[in-house]
Queue: 2 jobs
Job 1
Amino acid sequence: MQVTEEDGGRLNAFAKEPRMEVIDVKSSRSSSSQLLIVVGGVLVVALVAVTVVIS
């Protein structure tokens, strides 16, 4: 952790940042994540439909 001294003798500590990773576009949208998005959308639509039917 890097520590610097500010005006007035105060110490300021900076955390060590993690390295950045570049994510490929193909790997970010795998078939399982797309399936999860579709199932979540269907679930939301179904819950809205049930709410409309009940009220």
Note: The longest strand covers residues 2-5.
Job 2
Amino acid sequence: MSSPVYALNLFSISNRDEYMAYSRRSVKEVQAHGGRVIALGKFREVAVGDIVPRMVLILVEWASKDAFDSYRNDPALADLHPHRVNGTRDYIWHLFDKLEDLRPILKAVS
């Protein structure tokens, strides 16, 4: 059985119309491919760290890495993803394994 993964999306909007074309359709497509948006956020302030701030945060829980890949690679969505690319800048898209607690990470550090 595959484990869920989280996709952390951080970006800034560069073209509102392009990103709106993406977002109008992407919610339905994400759900159809096994994803669920669990958090949306607007940048507030830097607390710690030196990463260049992005104005938008979206956190998506995917049923599995395969579900995420099916969304990214579905030929039926070839016309959708360019709207995301053309509507944003400084995009960060990182995947994280879902954990019940931090023991697996802390064990690896020991």
Note: The CA atoms of residues 10 and 57 lie 5 Å apart.
